[in-house]
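Query structure, 447 tokens:
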């Protein structure tokens, strides 16, 4: 049955990282100066995301060679991904956030740690010290001149290293970021791009005039001044003291949940994500400090890839954010009493709802109201993105994961370190009493 990290493994709190150089990398050839339109989905995601990708030592690729190859590959990739060398700016005529494709460059940082990769210990358990492996911003640049992408290479004493990437979420979603990594890896191997990126964000422009044809309870209108959207986060950080645990579901646990979810309803897709999300939804809603109110409504939010759902479909090579927020809402009474298969059906229905017209309506809604996803909590799934599957000249990453922050209203799914293992790790942060209840329910609903 699912396991729980009862206590964090021993964590090194200071990785003793020394930065040796910090510079701007420019495109390897001239790019066109232009402004890039950002969709209403991109605009909502104006915040930075950090990921770390750990690599074991390779005899043919010592860290200095890796640094050289990655810096050259970054220079080359900034030509087809010209927006990545640009800067965010407001277009005062249109009152819209855009990317000024001005070839100002991406950040490139070279650093080293006094530890070996093995000494860092459990890579799966999010270590706050991993923040030392990424650069949040370039201190020598003004706030309005910050790169949209900063890559840091930190070498370990063993010859292994970690590639830390900070990028503005407006540039990529998870799928397009993986494609970017595949292209970066290919260029580092002196090969051509794996896939030519499609940078046309106008493909997700709102209709003119906007037509909101659905009610969109998953979205919240916010009256905020134009240009200050980034100040109003979709989920506010809570000042509460939070306990932090990782719950691990093995492939057998997921198979058992799928068996419980079997239904004759042909519309219900009994996928690994749907059953795990439903299991976590029940635990989260019923562990809430108002969980005794069985009439209380709980809403789960999760991202759905809209690329294949649009008419015509978005190109698979689309670089922008091609995801929208799906939702499911139920009373705590239903979450406690209804058959698991019915609850899985509700989660599946959230994705089924995401037709071309629904997606276009949500985008048009953003044009009119400039709001954000709204629900009790959001599942952010890194589970099947496959960052660790990318083949670099020095091999695949031993482990890839986001640099995470404890948030009560965001639950993370991320893969186990064994790439062949289809299990999932679930990162939960809750106040102590709610965590105790969550833990009890997690086991109870798995039985």
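Result returned for the query:
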């Amino acid at each position: 049955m699912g396991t729980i990290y009862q206590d964090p493994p021993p964590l090194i709190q200071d990785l003793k990282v020394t930065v040796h150089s910090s510079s701007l990398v420019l495109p390897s050839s001239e790019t066109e100066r232009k402004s890039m339109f950002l969709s209403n989905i991109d605009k909502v995601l104006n915040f930075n995301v950090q990921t770390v990708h750990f690599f074991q030592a390779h005899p043919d690729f010592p860290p200095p060679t890796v640094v050289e190859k990655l810096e050259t590959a970054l220079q080359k990739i900034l030509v087809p991904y010209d927006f990545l060398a640009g800067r965010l700016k407001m277009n005062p005529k249109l009152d819209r956030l855009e990317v000024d494709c001005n070839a100002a460059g991406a950040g490139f940082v070279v650093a080293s740690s006094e530890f070996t990769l093995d000494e860092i210990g459990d890579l799966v358990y999010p270590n706050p010290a991993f923040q030392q492996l990424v650069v949040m911003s370039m201190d020598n640049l003004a706030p309005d001149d910050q790169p949209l992408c900063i890559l840091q290479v930190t070498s370990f004493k063993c010859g292994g290293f970690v590639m830390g990437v900070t990028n503005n979420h407006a540039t990529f979603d998870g799928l397009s970021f993986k494609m970017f990594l595949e292209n970066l890896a290919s260029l580092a191997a002196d090969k051509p791009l794996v896939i030519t990126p499609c940078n046309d964000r106008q493909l997700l422009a709102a209709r003119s005039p906007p037509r909101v044809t659905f009610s969109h309870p998953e979205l919240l209108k916010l009256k905020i001044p134009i240009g200050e959207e980034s100040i109003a986060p979709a989920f506010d950080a809570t000042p509460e003291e939070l306990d932090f645990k990782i719950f691990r579901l093995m492939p057998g646990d997921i198979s058992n949940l799928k068996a419980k979810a079997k239904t004759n309803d042909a519309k219900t897709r009994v996928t690994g994500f749907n059953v795990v999300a439903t299991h976590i939804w029940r635990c989260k809603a019923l562990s809430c400090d108002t969980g005794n109110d069985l009439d209380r409504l709980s809403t789960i939010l999760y991202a759905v890839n809209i690329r294949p759902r649009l008419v015509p479909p978005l190109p698979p090579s689309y670089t922008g954010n091609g995801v929208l927020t799906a939702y499911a809402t139920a009373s705590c009474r239903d979450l406690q009493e209804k058959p698991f298969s019915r609850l899985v059906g509700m989660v599946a229905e959230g994705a089924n709802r995401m037709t071309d017209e629904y997606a276009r309506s949500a985008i048009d809604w953003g044009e009119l109201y400039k709001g954000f996803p709204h629900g009790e909590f959001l599942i952010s799934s890194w589970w099947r993105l496959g960052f660790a599957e990318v083949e670099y000249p020095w091999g695949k990453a031993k482990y890839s994961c986001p640099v995470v922050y404890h948030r009560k209203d965001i639950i993370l799914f991320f893969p186990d370190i064994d790439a062949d293992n289809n299990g999932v790790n679930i990162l939960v942060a809750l106040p102590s009493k709610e965590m105790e209840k969550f833990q009890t329910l997690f086991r109870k609903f798995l039985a």
